[in-house]
Amino acid sequence: MDRKHSLDQQQVRHVAALARLALTEEELAGLEQDLQAILHHVDRLAEVDVSDIEPMNSPHGHCSRLHDDEPTEPLPVAAVLEMAPATEADFISVPRVLDGGGAA
Amino acid sequence: MSQIPEKAREIAAAVRGGDISAVEVAEHYIARIGAVDPSLGCFQNVRAETALTMAKRVDATISQGSDPGPLAGVPVALKDNIMVAGEPATCGSRILENFVSPYDATVTRRLTDAGAVLLGRTRCDEFAMGSSTEHCAYGVVRNPWDPDFVPGGSSGGSAAAVAAGLVPCALGSDTGGSIRQPAAFCGITGLKPTGGRVSRWGLVSFAPSMDQIGPFTRDAADAALLLQILAGQDELDDTSAMAAPPAGIEALERPLNGLRIGIPEEHLSADNDPAINAAVQEAADVYRSLGCDVSTVHLETTDLGIACYYVLGPAEASSNLARFDGIRFGRRASGKDHDLEGLYCASRSEGLGVEARRRIMLGTYVLSAGYYDAYYTRALKVRRLIHDEYARLFTQVDVILGPTVPSPAFRFDTHSDPLSMYLCDKYTVTANIAGTCGVSIPSGTANFEGVSLPVGIQLQGPVLGEDTVLRAAHHFQIATDYHTAIPPITGSS
Predict the structure, then answer these.
(1) β-sheet bridge partners, residue B403
(2) Is residue B351 domain-resident?
(3) What CATH number does residue B30 fall under?
């Protein structure tokens, strides 16, 4: 049967932007081909009768539970800062986001 | 030096009994890794000094007359996506090249509390995405049975290390077969516990509704020993199961008389390597001779497994891997002139490898506006069908027997087409989708282009059914000696 959902280059570009991936033209073309093939296989799900079936987000139904609403010890600030690639005093530094952003 | 036993329980007994010291054991394995691992590449790093310090502590505990625990002096290797405080956990990714874990995984703490000696970190496919360990940013792992073949994946380093005798046991993680498939390819025992059986706290998330940590061992009895230490409810993981603990080694001995074993007709596909189907039939004969009631059953959703998994897994992965953005931890792109969004994009694109990107793209697509219901919601409904079919089948049989993988190990670069690699996991992904448990055990060898490679069979059980599948595995290993086969690579040690 025909592919139910085909993917074009413009969509691949859109998905890469949503995923915050900067990809070359070559990489985009390769991904378009790979995703087409995988989605073609996935299309067999569309042939299954799922009327009246509830979605199952997780099979962990036997154990999900809520915590007591009690504070616990978080990671020390120093440990968090140590993991960050760039810091300034007790802050993680990022490029400027106000005043139109631009160079850091 | 006295003879070092090869099984975890034998090492623990010898160390607790004072026959050998934990330091002797650690030195033996460190030397063996030094001699053999350069040709295999199982280890991302070996923490020799820290391991010897831990071993000395175990010996000191014994000399003070105390018991260091059920894993006293047992060396364990951890897949490089499980955290040890103060040590790297690269997940096989450049984006975590310089990451240092700020805390211990719950399994790390449980192992060390039981007296284990953490020997090092094993290589894996990037973020545990793969079936060959070819997608590790730091180098491939070779199959100890033949270096031209992959060890399977994604926990290929852990599997190959146990198979080559570099460590008596190791931990991996299994999201779609990443413990069972490399165990089959390397000829060892690999257990994927029930979803929620073992805490995921400190395991770097790939797809949390399916991720599960489990042991690689030389036999089912060692797997039962490890599971008993790893399993249990954990306040730090809300999906960890509130359940009676597994029964442990002693309970394995109870005879199998009357155990109901079902072989799904759909798992004996004509597309499987003939040696695989022959191994399943031979195992059926072994189980009949042990008094089991073996019958043919059906798992009609088998052919939906990969399709369902490659919607759900990537969807969860694309959400989880969004945290790798170059801001709070991990690699940040070096350029000075990025705006914030450009910094995210550059950091992710520099740091993430080809398979991780592919899954992020797929997951982002199936969750995007206009496609969410057609793909994601539909896959969640098919998940319930797969789950319900397992649940119904487990009212008729106690254990499902079948192949772990459709073929033995393959050569490097065999599956350049990603879909053909994904299809290797068709018999393992459904247990992750349904949250059930399964173990792969060795069941002989297959000749592939003149090379002798291990074959694995899979025993699947229901939710929290590990005691039964491990008991079935244990009796197979009493009746046969496939699990004692040693790969030809021995090194100079």
Answers:
(1) B457
(2) no
(3) 3.90.1300.10
